[in-house]
């Protein structure tokens, strides 16, 4: 690798959902290879648990913006201010690549080449949840996303299924990259399993379809535990009944729940990748998932699938696995074997290859060369 300094990436993240976990994992792995990271966060202030996650990351400098995201209510002044802030950070940090995990900023005049990664979008979420196109009130969002995609040097998504939605909803014609997420097996490991069904996700997000578990839980001989926020960022809360609500847990606390759960159930209507599923699989859980293209793409035969709206099928599937420990164990081992392919190292390799398509500094470089930079 040429040059007198380590390569630099300006990396955006939000503090609300799985993009935070993904961004921290990627930043940690890239920094271990000698890449300097400026991590620009938005969506809300960093929590104490999130600050603890990044406190000791060498080579990662965090900038806490707190701006509202492009899918939130009354966001557009925040999105404009966040864009100006990111342009300022770029001038100060001088990155070789700007890696954006929100769409809107792809249209900004960055000096460095840009990678926009599509983790989810409102239009595909709306169609999956409501079975129809988003209403006109989302037209500005649609136009903003389209402009961001058109302005990006390169577009990527964690699954082919998510990438396909960009062509469907925004007319993306350029070939994009599929860059799967990764999670560290060291953070997730099974212990002595208990008779528990676990789910994790924002209960207010209808895409997670956790209400289906709420509906079938009273008919199951095992308790159903749900970890995740009930409070919507825009206000209001959804409180489930008939299940054990664990609330929003820190990552190590959630790892403890994964470790003891025998079954992980996520009958999602929409899940472009599903980091919680990966973490559950690494923890030795048998997987019961929504029968949607992205989850089938990621998990293949290593999971059992149910139609998101078929509560009877969900109930019967969970009852069957509860009654058949050998089948639970078979599914758990299959999921674990598949999960071990989604490592942070492989994720970082994929992203370094994507960066190399944008910036010569990353081309023809090995991990050892990065570490020596």
Task: Describe the protein in words.
This protein is an alpha/beta fold and 373 residues long. It folds into 2 domains: 8-182 and 343-371, 3-Layer(aba) Sandwich (Rossmann fold); 185-339, 3-Layer(aba) Sandwich (Rossmann fold). 41% of the residues lie in helices and 17% in strands. The protein is built from 14 helices and 13 strands. It has helices at residues 18-32, 48-54, 76-93, 122-130, 139-151, 160-170, 210-216, 251-260, 275-282, 293-299, 311-323, 325-339, 344-358, 367-371, and strands at 8-14, 36-42, 60-64, 97-100, 114-117, 154-157, 177-178, 194-200, 224-227, 244-247, 261-266, 286-290, 304-306. A 7-stranded parallel beta sheet has the order 3-2-1-4-5-6-7, with helices on both faces. The chain has a 6-stranded parallel beta sheet with strand order 10-9-8-11-12-13, sandwiched between helices. Strand 2, helix 2 (48-54) and strand 3 form a beta-alpha-beta unit. Helix 7 (210-216) packs across helix 11 and helix 9 crosses helix 12. The termini are close together. 47% of the residues are buried.
Major β-sheet profile: 7 strands, parallel
Structural class: alpha/beta
- CATH structural fold name of the largest domain: Rossmann fold
CATH homologous superfamily designation of the largest domain: Glycogen Phosphorylase B
CATH class label of the largest domain: Alpha Beta
């Amino acid at each position: 690798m040429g040059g007198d300094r380590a390569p630099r990436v300006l990396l955006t993240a939000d503090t609300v959902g799985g993009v935070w976990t993904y961004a921290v994992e990627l930043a940690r792995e890239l920094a271990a290879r000698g890449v300097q990271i400026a991590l620009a966060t938005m969506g809300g202030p960093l929590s104490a648990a999130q600050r603890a996650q990044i406190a000791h990351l060498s080579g990662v400098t965090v900038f806490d913006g707190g701006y509202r995201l492009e899918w939130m209510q009354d966001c557009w002044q925040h999105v404009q201010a966040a864009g100006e802030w990111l342009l300022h950070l770029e001038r100060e940090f001088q990155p070789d690549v700007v890696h954006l995990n929100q769409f809107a900023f792809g249209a900004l005049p960055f000096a460095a080449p840009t990678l926009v990664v599509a983790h989810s979008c409102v239009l595909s979420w709306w169609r999956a949840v409501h079975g129809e196109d988003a209403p006109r009130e989302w037209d500005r969002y649609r136009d903003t996303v389209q402009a961001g995609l058109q302005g990006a040097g390169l577009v990527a998504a964690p699954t082919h299924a998510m990438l396909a939605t960009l062509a469907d909803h925004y007319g993306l014609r350029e070939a994009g990259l599929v860059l799967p997420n990764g999670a560290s097996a060291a953070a997730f490991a099974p212990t002595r399993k208990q008779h528990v069904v676990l789910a994790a996700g924002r209960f207010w997000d209808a895409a997670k379809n956790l209400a289906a578990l709420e509906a079938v839980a009273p008919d199951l001989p095992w308790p159903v535990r749900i970890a995740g926020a009930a409070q919507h960022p825009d206000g209001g809360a959804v409180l489930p009944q008939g299940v054990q609500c664990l609330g929003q847990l820190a990552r190590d606390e959630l790892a403890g729940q994964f470790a003891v759960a025998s079954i992980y159930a996520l009958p999602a209507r929409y899940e472009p990748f599903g980091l919680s599923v990966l973490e559950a699989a690494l923890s030795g859980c048998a997987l019961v998932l929504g029968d949607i293209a992205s989850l089938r793409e990621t998990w293949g035969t290593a999971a059992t699938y149910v139609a998101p709206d078929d509560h009877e099928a969900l109930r019967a599937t969970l009852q069957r696995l509860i009654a058949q420990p050998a089948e639970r164990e078979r599914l758990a081992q299959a999921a674990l074997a598949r999960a071990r392919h989604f490592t942070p190292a492989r994720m970082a390799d994929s992203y370094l290859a994507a960066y190399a398509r944008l910036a010569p500094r990353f081309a023809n470089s090995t991990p050892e060369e990065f570490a020596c930079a």
